[in-house]
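LAB NOTEBOOK - FOLDING QUEUE
OPERATOR: T.R.
BATCH SIZE: 2
PURPOSE: Compare the predicted C-alpha cell outputs for two unrelated chains run back to back under identical settings.
PRIORITY: normal
REVIEWER: second-year student, initials M.K.

ITEM 1
FIELD SEQUENCE / FIELD STRUCTURE:
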Amino acid sequence: MVNAPTAVTALLPVLLFALTGLALLLIDTIRPSGRSNTSMAVVSALGSLGALGATAWLVVSGTVGVDAGAVRLFADTIAVDTMALFFIAIFASVTALVVVAAHDYFHDHANPAAFYSLVLFATTGMALLAVANSLAVVFVALEMVSLPSYVLVAFLKQNRGSVEAGMKYFLVGALSSAIFLFGISLVYAATGSLLFGDVAEAVGSLDGLAGVAGLGIVMIVGGVAFKTASVPFHFWAPEA
C-alpha cells in the first residue's frame, strides 16, 4: 500500500495544475486590483512550468521510472508511470505556450483570470486522464476536460457565434458523456471490474466481443470519438 507522502509526490504535477487554477480564482476574488492580464498569465505559466519541472523530477529522482515501475494509487485506479509523465510533460509545455500566446489577446479584457483558470482546470483533467487506470477515473477526467472546454468555446459572451458554438458543443458533449457512461456500465456488467488490466483479461477470456461486452466497448469508443471529434463524429468541431 502506497503511503500518503508518496501519493502526493506521485501526483504532484496534477496537483500543481489544480492548485494553480484555484490560485487564479483566489487572486481574482480577494484582490480584484491584482488580476491584471500580465499577472494572471505569469501565474499560469509558472504553474505549468512548475508541473513540467515536477514531472522531470519524478523521473530523475527515480520515484517513477523503468526500474521503479509505476506508482499505483487508490486501489490501482491511478497508475503513474513514465508514459503518463511523458503525456503530462506535453500538456504542461503546451499549456505554458497557450497562456503566453493568450497574453496579447486578452490585453484589454476585463476579467482574464476566468480564461486562465479554465485552461488550467482543463489541463488538470488531461493530466488526470494520463494517469487513469480505471474507466471510472477516465470518465471523471474526461468531464474535467470537457466542462471547462464548453465555457472556453462560449467565452466571448457578446459574440453570437461563440455562444452558439458553445451550446452545440455542450449538447454534443452531454450526449457523448451519456453514451460513454452507459458503455462503461455494460463493460462492468460483463467483466465485473473497471480496472484496465482486469477488463482486458476478462474480455480476452470471453468468446469474442459479441453481446454486452462488445456493445459496451463500441459505446465507449463512440463516446470518446464524439469527445475528440474523430471522423465521422466531427460535425460539431468546425464551429467550436
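ITEM 2
FIELD SEQUENCE / FIELD STRUCTURE:
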Amino acid sequence: MAVTVAHRGDPYAHRENTLPSVRSALLKGADAVEVDVRVTGDGVPVLLHDPTLERLWGHQRAVLGLTRDEVRDLTGGQVPTLAEALAELARHERGRMLLDLTGAEQAAPALAAVRDAGAGERVYYCGEATAMRAVRDADPAAEIALTWKTSARPAPALLAAVAPRWLNLRFGLIDAATVGYARERGLLVAAWTADWPRSMRRLLALGVDSVTTNRLTALQRLTGPPAPRGAGGHRDRA
C-alpha cells in the first residue's frame, strides 16, 4: 500500500506550512506530512516554502534577513518553528514528518531541531543533491528521499554519496522504466505532487511506494482507509 504524504499539511483546509495545516493532515490519517524548512537570520528553522514572506503573508522580506521574533511579529505568530511543528507531531500517535530542505545551510539547524525533539524515528528528509549530501554528512543514519526533477538518471557516485532510501520524483517523470530502475538499485519510489485521481491511479498502478498530494482525502479514497489511530506503525517502514 502506498504511503500517503500530505503536501505542506492540509492546504485546502488551512494555510500551508502552519500548525493547523499539519494538525489537520495528521488527524485525517496522513502517513506523513511534508513541510518546507527555511532558516531565519538568527539560525532558527521555520516552516515556510518561499524565501520571502510575500506570497503568503504580504511582506517583501527575506526570511534569512529576519530574526525568528521578526517573522513571528510579521505573520501574527502563524509561521511556526520546526520545533513547534515537531511538538505537534509528538501529540499524535501515528504519522511522520518529511522535511523538505532547499539548501545545505538548512541541514544542521533542521537536524539539531529533530535531535532536540527526540524525533529522529519519525522524521525523514527530502531535497536536491546539495542539501541531501549535507544531511548525509551530518547524520549517517538519516532516512533520505533524494528529489529528482529530470528524466536523466542520478549519477552512481551521487547515489553512493547520499545513500537515499527513496527516489523522490516529480509525478510526471514516473513510468514503468523509472520504477524498474529504482527497484534494481533497492530504492523506494516517491511521487510528488499528484492532485487528481487520474494521476493518482496511474501512479498506484505503477506500484509507487509513496504519493505526495495537496488533496489527502482524494488519495485516501484510492489507497484505502488510514490505519486506526493508536496503531503506531508507519507504512513506509513496512
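REVIEWER COMMENT (ITEM 2): Residues 107-117 form the longest helix (11 residues).
FOLLOW-UP: none requested
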